[in-house]
Specification:
The chain is built from 6 helices and 10 strands. The protein is α+β, with helices and mostly antiparallel strands and about 180 residues long. The chain is globular and about 45 Å long.
């Protein structure tokens, strides 16, 4: 039996004909994906020296929105200046008081519990102030939609990093941090 399955991810409407098992798997995957915005975890570069520049993390991040390539990725890997110097991983570091959220004139970016931001694309007017304000340079721009690309802390990129250069880490609870 085939079902018509429609869902929205990042403003893109997807519609597919799937079987009942596939439909269940899609729902689970979407739940896990959106659950990442409420978790008290953040993405971290665990050991940059392990990064070989394969860019699997970038591919995985772009695939989460149903696209291929690098253009919709919320993580970037670039050379640090030749083979001897290794690579730099540019990703949202989940700031406690994110400057990107503070400069947003429409409150499209709001602070996330545990650090970082959550983007409400419906409120975003595409001014680009957030990308300019990010001290890490970790807010990338989607020129096609004129919206920022912000890390959702889903961990999809970390799942594909075979060298464990990046990963999700627990954010200390505020009560623990005060002690």
């Amino acid at each position: 039996m085939q079902y018509r399955f429609s869902y929205h991810i990042h403003g893109y409407r997807r519609e597919e004909e799937v079987g009942v098992i596939q439909k269940s798997l899609y729902l689970i995957r979407i739940y896990i994906y959106y659950r990442g915005t409420d978790m008290t975890k953040k993405l971290a570069a665990l050991d940059v020296n392990k990064c070989i520049g394969c860019m699997e993390c970038m591919f995985a991040c772009t695939r989460r929105v149903g696209r291929g390539g690098f253009d919709k990725s919320a993580i970037r890997v670039r050379s640090a200046g030749g083979i001897e110097r290794g690579f730099v991983i540019v990703v949202c570091r989940a700031c406690e008081n994110p400057p990107c959220a503070k400069v947003c004139p429409t409150d499209a970016l709001r602070e996330r519990k545990g650090g970082g931001v959550i983007l409400n694309e419906d409120k975003c007017i595409g001014c680009g102030f957030c990308a300019q304000a990010c001290i890490m340079g970790a807010i990338f721009w989607d020129g096609e939609r004129n919206k920022p690309i912000v890390c959702k802390y889903c961990g999809e990129c970390a799942n594909y990093c075979v060298h464990n250069a990046i990963g999700l880490v627990e954010v200390k609870a505020e009560a623990e941090a005060e002690e």
